[in-house]
Amino acid sequence: MNSTSYMTVAHDLAVELVKQLSDADMADLCEATDAAIIEGGGFGWLEPQGREALARHFRGTLLVPERELFIARLDGHVVGSAQLVRPPRNNEAQSFGATLTHAYLAPYARGHGLARMLVMRVEERAAALGHRVLNLDVRETQTTAIALFEALGYVHWGTHPFYARVDGHTVSGRYYFKPLEPGRGRSTGALLDAAP
């Protein structure tokens, strides 16, 4: 009788807020981004961009004061990212909210809980900065991302029927929000309920 035993491998998972990227991290991030683009998920580009174009994009992202870049690591390698976008300082009326955008993992890094960790870390940072609501939008074709966001408590509030063009077809987009709880003070619900 043959007995088959399976080893489970524990992976090292991490999410970091970065202010700069080493050459190795930039190479990993560009590779992961192109892999996600090819698979059709999470970035907006429809065709792979290559390392030079993506490196310019990420270097530019790191220069924008209202944007923060989070990277996801699997066993030490960068395999995805997300961005937290805060309103500009002159938009005091909407300063309580922020936006989660460009969240994705390379297809080869999925299935370990890293996407959940990435989104939750962005939420924690937004709450720590004083934001009470996190907004996001996603193409309707990204069903795995939609399932994750809904499982994390994001509320679908609207659909844009002409959100994007993919492979010559118009694709709808779904819009979500999630109230964030601060570490202390008034609850977000109490704050929002008190608003006129």
CATH topology assignment: Aminopeptidase
Report the mean per-residue pLDDT as an integer.
Answer: 90
Rounded to an integer, what's the Rg over CA atoms?
18 Å
Helical percentage: 25-40%
In CATH, the architecture is 3-Layer(aba) Sandwich
Taking pLDDT < 50 over at least 5 consecutive residues as the criterion, the unreliable ranges are none
Beta-strand fraction estimate: 25-35%
- SSE-based structural type: alpha+beta
Number of discrete domains: 1
What's the CATH superfamily, by name? Gcn5-related N-acetyltransferase (GNAT)
Cross-sheet strand order for the largest sheet: 1-2-3-4-5-7-6
What's the β-strand tally? Answer: 7
Outline type: globular
Question: What gap, in angstroms, lies between the N and C termini?
Answer: 73 Å
CATH class: Alpha Beta
Describe the structure.
- This protein has 196 residues and is of the alpha+beta class.
- It has one domain (13-194): Aminopeptidase (3-Layer(aba) Sandwich), CATH 3.40.630.
- 32% of the residues lie in helices and 32% in strands.
- It is built from five helices and seven strands; from the N terminus they run E-H-H-E-E-E-H-E-H-E-E-H.
- The chain has a seven-stranded mixed sheet with strand order 1-2-3-4-5-7-6, sandwiched between helices.
- Helix 1 (23-39) crosses helix 2.
- The mean pLDDT is 90.
